[in-house]
Specification:
Elements lengths: L1 E7 L2 E8 L7 E4 L10 H7 L5 E4 L16 H14 L5 E6 L1 H12 L4 E7 L10 H12 L6 H12 L1 H13 L13 E6 L7 H10 L3 E6 L6 H4 L1 H14 L8
Parallel strand pairs: 3-4, 3-5, 5-6, 6-7, 7-8
Antiparallel strand pairs: 1-2, 2-4
Helix pairs in contact: 1-9, 2-3
Length: 252
């Protein structure tokens, strides 16, 4: 993968790119409190078929650290600014967890940047918008995640600092993503792991219903962090969406 740096609104943003050629590019968006570390295996796997990118949002990973944590809108605007700096438009935005909320926000407020969406483990449903409920779900889900992810999370939390980490989770809980979904005009694939304890099946189904062009895929045997646990399960779904513009229909 190629590491790239650009400056967006005075802040350094570091991204990674894999693959070359024409066609719809793919941009993978990381979740709350973490960086792109967990998504780079997916980007590398996608690079064999499409142009794929990921980026550390401001405050996380190797990107610059604003003096104050950014709210969801600020993070989404930073993502949009980074895409403009890298001359990426009409992309398939692949959100993971909180990254789904950012992808939806970009698709609604910066529609020229999004040609399709993949929402892998979309958070946060109304029933879990409190710290006790979110922490309980996270604990239940963690037992099924790949143990190799834990040291990556620790490194991400260290790099960002706990004030910024907690702020990112708080802004995720304040966001009513469901109200934006009817305004997403591009083909959208909602992906849920069968054993995802952060994203109930009912919520994944509601997200899909609210999308004008949405489809749901449930992947057997997988938890919340599908892009890290089994990137190979996502690659063909993303590639088909990018090439055909129509989400596959495969309910688990």
């Amino acid at each position: 993968m190629q590491r790239r740096e650009v400056v967006v609104d005075g802040e350094r943003m570091v991204g990674w790119r894999a693959g070359y050629g024409a066609g719809m590019p793919v941009v993978c968006v990381h979740g709350a409190g973490v960086s792109s570390r967990e998504l780079r295996p997916l980007v590398a796997a996608l690079g064999g078929a499409v142009r794929a990118w990921t980026v550390d949002l401001p405050g996380f990973g190797q990107s610059g650290k604003p003096s104050r944590p950014l709210e969801l809108v600020g993070l989404a605007d930073a993502l949009a600014g980074w895409m403009a700096a890298e001359r990426i438009s009409g992309a398939c935005l692949v959100g993971c967890s909180f990254g789904c909320q950012l992808a939806v926000d970009v698709a609604v407020r910066h529609p020229e940047l999004a040609g399709a969406l993949v929402l892998a483990g979309p958070t946060v449903d109304a029933a879990a918008r409190s710290w006790p409920k979110l922490v309980w779900r996270w604990a239940r889900n963690s037992v099924r995640e790949d143990p190799r992810m834990a040291p990556l999370n620790i490194a991400d939390y260290r790099d960002a600092g706990m004030r910024r980490v907690l702020s990112s989770f708080a802004t995720a809980m304040r966001d009513g993503m469901e109200d934006k979904l009817p305004y997403v005009g591009v083909p959208t694939l909602v992906v849920r792991g069968e054993y995802d304890r952060l994203v109930p099946r009912e919520w994944a189904e509601e997200v899909t219903r609210r999308l004008p062009r949405g489809r749901l895929v449930v992947l057997p045997g997988l938890p919340h962090m599908i892009p890290f646990k089994d990137p190979g399960a996502l690659v063909p779904l993303i590639v088909q969406l990018v090439r055909d513009g129509v989400p596959v229909v495969r309910h688990g």
